[in-house]
Specification:
alpha+beta, binds adenosine-5'-diphosphate, 5-stranded antiparallel beta sheet, 9 helices, 6-stranded mixed beta sheet
């Protein structure tokens, strides 16, 4: 039985001409950490709010623990939601902030005490229970917000961009904390973010949405390495995958004068597309500087040193391409270089932007 099942959820807001969500189906396993990711406006929050019961879908259903809760009010769904704006009560201590929801539900005092202390211990807030929020750092406040969800002992945790108000360093820290928490609790967590790094690092699986339509749902590395279409390929990865116009030529693609050969399943699949206009995609870490025949020639336009690596930007007839190299790689501006995808690094997308030669895609919404 899935912990949460979304069955063809569809929602169009009043006054909008296109649906915020279209036929969105997804099965989330008990104990899974599922990340919903996509650009702003793709329908992530609408999906999450539908699970919480804060939005009512026009069509489709929401199931939690095998029960159809589509018509069930939020308070009876046994879910807890953590938002970006965690809005703690400023006049209350951490203890009272954690206890407040339980008091409202008339939970017996000893049980409140037990649950608050348990959550505080899990989150490392033991020493802070008598403090007011203004005496806490941003990260500590966010942990209190998490604690408020924990004390509810919900069936499902819902997170709506909970870390986006924190500075970069704290986000990395809280990401690790959330990861640990998920392992300790073994709880079902659904997490919405537009941040692809958060998605990659937190999710057991990630579901990529575009304009209300599910594109792909799979383990993070699978989505990264085998994107089902050009949108998913371009959304994950920073800097993003390089895309160039190309024409299929045997088991290779021609990019202007250059010829990039494919391997394995892609090579076999390409033969069915002879002469087709396609988009070739290569991630910056899969492009190598090479003078071998078939390389795409260009000039180094500029480079960025990031400490552990250097990014070269090479201007070619097919556009500017990013290449990830070692930090001390020679990179004279204006130098003429050749670019070749490393073995297995080439991806090819057809005229409809679908990946050619991808394994049977885990697309539900296509
Ligand atoms: P995301 O969380 O991915 O940024 P949302 O689910 O918030 O996306 O929104 C999806 C689409 O629905 C967007 O086009 C947004 O403008 C629209 N939308 C969201 N909430 C409302 C609302 N209450 N009324 C009208 N349109 C809305």
């Amino acid at each position: 039985m899935s912990a949460v099942r979304l069955d063809r959820l569809t929602k169009t807001y009043e006054g909008q001409d296109r649906p915020a969500l279209s036929e969105f189906s997804l099965d989330i396993a008990p104990g899974e950490f599922l990340v919903l990711v996509g650009p702003s406006g793709c329908g992530k929050s609408t999906a999450l709010r539908s699970i919480a019961g804060l939005e009512v879908p026009d069509a489709g259903s929401v199931w939690i623990g095998g029960r159809d809760v589509t018509e069930v009010p939020p308070r009876d769904r046994n879910i807890a939601m953590v938002f970006q704006n965690y809005a703690l009560y400023p006049h209350m201590t951490v203890y009272d902030n954690l206890a407040f929801g339980l008091k409202l539900r008339k939970t017996p005092k000893p049980e409140i005490d037990e649950r608050v202390k348990e959550a505080a211990a899990l989150l490392g807030l033991d020493g802070y229970l008598e403090r007011k929020p203004k005496a806490l750092s941003g990260g500590e406040r966010q942990r209190v917000a998490l604690g408020r969800a924990l004390v509810r002992r919900p069936d499902v945790f819902l997170f709506d961009e909970p870390l986006s108000n924190l500075d970069a360093q704290l986000r990395v820290h809280m990401r690790a904390e959330l990861h640990k928490l998920h392992q300790k609790l073994d709880a079902t967590m659904i997490y919405v973010t537009h941040d692809q790094v958060e998605a990659m690092t937190l999710g057991d699986r990630i579901a990529v949405l575009k304009a209300g339509v599910l594109q792909q749902v799979d383990a993070p590395l699978t989505v990264y390495e085998r994107p089902v279409n050009k949108f998913v390929a371009g959304f994950l990865g920073s800097p993003s995958m390089n895309f160039v116009e190309a024409v299929v030529d045997g088991t290779a693609v021609r990019v202007g004068e250059a010829r990039w050969t494919a391997e394995g399943a892609l090579a076999a699949a390409l033969s069915a597309h002879a002469g087709a206009k396609v988009t070739a995609g290569v991630r910056p870490e899969h492009l190598a500087l090479s003078d071998a025949p078939g390389a795409l020639r260009g000039q180094i336009e500029f480079s960025e040193v990031l400490g552990a690596e250097r990014l070269l930007y090479v201007q070619t007839a097919a556009g500017r391409l990013g290449v990830r190299v070692a930090p001390h790689q020679k990179s004279a501006i204006g130098a003429n270089v050749g670019l070749l995808p490393e073995a297995g690094g080439l991806r090819v997308f057809d005229a409809a932007d679908l990946a050619i030669g991808a394994a049977a895609p885990a697309v539900v919404g296509a």
